[in-house]
Amino acid sequence: MAENQNQNQNQKQGKVEDLNHLLKVRREKLAELQQAGKDPFQVTKFDVNVHSSEIKEQYEEWEGKEVSVAGRLMSKRVMGKASFCNIQDLKGTIQSYVARDSIGEEEYKEFKKMDIGDIVGLKGNAFTTKTGEKSIHAESVTLLSKSLQILPEKFHGLTNTDLRYRQRYVDLIMNPEVRDTFVKRSQIIKEIRNHLDAQGFMEVETPMLVSNAGGAAARPFETHYNALDEDVKLRISLELYLKRLIVGGLERVYEIGRVFRNEGVDTRHNPEFTLLELYQAYTDYHGMMDLVENLFRSVAMQVLGTAVISYDGVEIDLSKPFERISMVDALKKYKDIDFTVIHTDEEAKALADQYHVSYEEHHKKGDILSLLFEEFVEEHLIQPTFIIDHPIEISPLTKKKPEDPEYTERFELFITKREMANAYSELNDPLDQIERFKAQEALLAAGDEEANSMDDDFVNALMIGMPPTGGIGIGIDRMVMLLTDSYAIRDVLLFPTMKSLDR
């Protein structure tokens, strides 16, 4: 046993010494270049006229013509007077044939000294090898930046997940599918803007540092504004400022921006994330359902070319009309619990006890309904489903249903068991809003750190008068997860929140 441990320790020590030697060799190569007046870090530009994938996909256009590409040297096979290498750029990789007789003896010597990971610029002609691979016959190879670190041979697998997130730059280099996810993320956000702009919406920006972080049930991050000597918070929502703009007469507004919630980290949550919120005057939550359904379908078609997608091996059909069902009816459908017979808070708590669902003492009838829904219904909501008509207790900014004031004109969109969007017929009655805020402040005083507090300026805006309005919030990160078949939110955030290595 001890002998095996010693062998393992010696092997690890040997690997460290080998690595240190390789790193030392790279530094020495850089020093030689600098002494020869060929410092790669002094190179300021290189003209690129095409990317790797474009040469392959539009080969008839480029065949025999001069191409100029730049990227990272990912492999190199030296065979005496000629070599092959692979260059990786933004759009993929391409092979290059590098011959001494084509680029010159001195430049060929310098090429042979280049390391995997170096950034190079390559000029030559597009051609096809005897094996049929579309390649570049190099006429010159220029070292543009020296890599002083060793790229890993493999950079995936469960044992390296933490390192992948911490060193996303290496993850992007080594895993093309990761790069593709973030290219798609950019395209998704672009198509969201295109869709909303075409519907007459106006993109705006609202404050991130606020005195009152309202609009959602979440604990805010707090900080101090030195210049004003005031405590402020990072916003948890975009809602209350965007509604002020509706009051001001901007009838259709939206914002895509970061919000911050002082909560835990898991596969669905990150303390800072990207939220889309939009508000439209003279419509209600039914109009918002139509809008969000069309938005998801349109973005999928534009980015993926289809509205029928695969997520975690399950086919998700965005092309069909999304199901619409009330929270009460969904509980009846999936758990056979008839909540219509529950009339008091005590009856609701007794029902929760019967089904072993935990709750807090201050919870009311509507809170219990929400808890039962989370426990027994969400897991069934795989295909796109609008859960509508939430209880008033969990919807402080939402209009009551005129025919049933215990419930509100609100919906959440669920796909793959996850909430994708949250929307209301917005509450525009200032007197009702004041009472809702008071109820929230009572919860805050009772220790609920996620409850809202009174926002006097927002109430004043409602006093001025806000038209009937529909509003919606969509988690951009979850939408990207859906459309890129990504399981964890960290897989769609370039730099997710990570615990410091110093702690």
- Uncertain segments are none
Please tell me how large the radius of gyration is: 29 Å
Number of strands: 20
The number of helical runs is 16
Question: What CATH architecture of the largest domain do you see?
Answer: 2-Layer Sandwich
Main sheet: strand order = 6-10-11-20-19-18-15-14
- CATH superfamily of the largest domain, by name, is Bira Bifunctional Protein, Domain 2
Question: Which fold name is given in CATH as the topology of the largest domain?
Answer: BirA Bifunctional Protein, domain 2
Whole-number tally of structural domains: 2
Q: Sheet bearing the most strands, described?
A: 8 strands, mixed
Q: Helix coverage percent of residues?
A: 25-40%
Please report the distance between the alpha carbons of the first and last residues: 33 Å
Task: Describe this entry's structure for a reader.
The protein is built from 16 helices and 20 strands. The protein is α+β, with helices and mostly antiparallel strands. The chain has two domains: 40-145, Beta Barrel (OB fold (Dihydrolipoamide Acetyltransferase, E2P)); 174-322 and 384-492, Bira Bifunctional Protein, Domain 2 (BirA Bifunctional Protein, domain 2). An eight-stranded mixed sheet has the order 6-10-11-20-19-18-15-14, with helices on both faces. It has a five-stranded mixed barrel with strand order 1-2-3-5-4. Strand 12 (308-311) and strand 13 form a beta hairpin. Helix 7 packs across helix 8 (176-198) and helix 9 (239-247) runs parallel beside helix 15 (456-464). The longest helix has 34 residues, at 2-35.
